[in-house]
Amino acid sequence: MICHAMFLAAVVAAAQAADPQDTKSFVYKKTKQAELELVVHYPPGWNEADKRPAIVFFFGGGWTGGKIEQFEPQASYLARRGMVAARADYRVKARHGVTPKDCVEDAKSAVRWMRANAARLGVDPDRMVAAGGSAGGHIAACTALAPGLDADDEDARISSKPNALVLFNPVLRFTGIPQLMERINNDETLGQAISPTIHLTKDSPPTLIFFGTADRLAAMGDEFMKKSKELGHRAELFTAEGQPHGFFNRPTWQEKTTQRMDEFLVSIGYLEGKPASDPPTGTKTSMKGWELYSRTT
Predict the structure, then answer these.
(1) Is 172 helix (H, G, I), strand (E, B) or coil?
(2) What is the span of the domain harbouring residue 153?
(3) What does the angle CA 24 – CA 28 – CA 29 come to, to the nearest 5 degrees?
(4) Residue-level pLDDT, tens digit, the chain, 297 residues
(5) Is residue 11 situated within a structural domain?
(6) Which residues of 248-271 are buried (b: 16+ CB within 10 A; e: fewer)?
(7) Residue 8: inside a domain, yes or no?
(8) CA 184, CA 174: separation in Å to the nearest integer?
(9) Residue 53: how many CB atoms within 10 A of its CB?
């Protein structure tokens, strides 16, 4: 008997073969180590004159490795839902000899490039989402919650700050974590600068966070939510019971987190209607949602 996951994969593959998604690659930044690519997924019926919401995903890999393909399923899904969805490469230690500071700079460059090219991409520059997992979630968070650290040769008049965040088991604080501080040579100033929770304010972009309860980083989500509630900032944390770091990459959690991401984007006016499909059944899963902390006015 073919298991449900295999059947679902076959159905998705057949649908994509019948309706291939339009994608295009751009070089969004040239550095001394490499040219950095951004792959854009266009929605059905896309037109350059559109003003669609946009999202850019950053892969995980501990600021050391990782591949741009990681969030291809989520980007493809959101494009089919009507967004312009992108996946961005960025410099990492293993390939380019850089530090987390450079990774953050590249993420800011990617958001700025998308906003600067909003007209050719058919996107609304005021409805841009940064998203990512693990280290990619960290640098996505830093685009909104790490003042400064922009590339010197870019147009600072174009904001590198997104309008919303979707973060999958992200690192949200460097300070006080010896294993993380070692990655930046125990530079306390830099550690403060790239600790998103420290820079959270009432007016920070609305944020959705996912963590597995067995993830050693899960306490960072609790800390973020505690501060968010105190400030009156809008954020949601969803936890996957008993799941480790990176759980969102696996069936059926990939489907469940994608559905919840969709619902969040509907709630902030970036998508309309219900998710394109329900997550598959057959595997016991549970996801506990924390209350939504709405901004006070």
Answers:
(1) coil
(2) 22-272+284-289
(3) 150
(4) 344 444 344 434 444 443 557 999 999 999 999 999 999 999 999 999 999 999 999 999 999 999 999 999 999 999 999 999 999 999 999 999 999 999 999 999 999 999 999 999 999 999 999 999 999 999 999 999 999 999 999 999 999 999 999 999 999 999 999 999 999 999 999 999 999 999 999 999 999 999 999 999 999 999 999 999 999 999 999 999 999 999 999 999 999 999 999 999 999 999 998 887 654 433 345 566 655 544 432
(5) no
(6) bbebbbbbbbbbbbbebbeebebb
(7) no
(8) 9
(9) 23
Look up residue 53 and give its amino acid. Answer: P
CA nearest 216: which of 266, 185, 179? 179
Q: How many domains does the chain have?
A: 1
CA atoms of 112 and 15, how far apart (whole Å):
33
Question: What DSSP string runs through 247-267?
Answer: GGGSTTHHHHHHHHHHHHHHH
DSSP state of 2: -
Q: Looking at the chain, which runs of residues are DSSP E strands?
A: 22-30, 35-42, 52-58, 84-88, 123-133, 164-168, 207-212, 235-240, 287-289
Amino acid found at 79: A
Do residues 146 and 193 touch, judged by C-beta distance below 8 A?
A: yes
Cα 25 to chain centroid distance, Å, stands at 19
User: 13 in a domain, yes or no?
Assistant: no
